[in-house]
Amino acid sequence: MHPSFCDGGENGPELPVSVEDILGRAPERARLAYTSLVTNADSRYDAETGWSCAYITQQALADEMYVCLRTATRAVRDLRDIGLVRVLSWPGARTETQVRIASVDISSPFGPVQAALAGSSKQQLIDKAISQLVATNRELEALASSV
Fold it and tell me: What percent of the chain has pLDDT over 70?
């Protein structure tokens, strides 16, 4: 059994993947944007969801990072590509930028998948966490834009 397993309940054991491990896949500009979003005065952490929410424009983010708008936009895209940021926008409302703070738990209710996860390398678990985050974020972003 993998040494970092936790008792996951109905979905079986969980393997937590830290945000720091996922951020290790991102370029420096994305790590800087992540820090700026998390430490922004308007950012509010929700312990229940593991996400922090901020209403910050990309221009304000660029100003906070001391970079041009193009670099800030690329940094947010980099973070979206690895699932650590999702941007929810509703017609007639302010755009909400959500940033993942808590670790991502990888689990499965199926025994064979649990066994495969237990034998996975750290890099494979990071890949799985990114894939899981990106899929969930795409669903939520699509739902928000269709409201």
Answer: 86
Q: How confident is the model at residue 7 (pLDDT cuts 50, 70, 90)?
A: very low
Question: pLDDT category, 12, cuts 50, 70, 90?
Answer: low
Q: Is 89 within 8 Å of 144 (Cβ atoms)?
A: yes
Token pair listed for 63: 């100003």
Q: Is the pLDDT of residue 8 over 50?
A: no
Distance CA 25, CA 30 (A): 10
Q: What are the structure tokens assigned to 26, written together?
A: 């991102």
Q: What b/e sequence results for 108-140 when a residue is b if at least 16 CB atoms lie within 10 Å of its CB, and e otherwise?
A: beeeeebeebeebeeeebbebbbebbbeebeee
DSSP state of 25: T
Listed in order, strand segments (DSSP E) in the chain are: 15-17, 44-46, 51-54, 85-88, 96-100, 104-106
